[in-house]
Design brief:
Blueprint: H1 8-15, H2 20-27
């Protein structure tokens, strides 16, 4: 299942509030515009 995430709030709603390691891993997959 895949879903388009358009905001940080949506991402947090899906994955919760991850620790720094997970957050950094997710950030690697975002475009510069999505890295807030």
């Amino acid at each position: 299942m895949s879903r388009v995430v358009t905001s940080v709030d949506e991402l947090r709603a899906i994955v919760g509030y991850p620790n720094a390691a997970v957050a950094n891993k997710v950030t690697d997959h975002l475009s510069p515009v999505e890295q807030l």
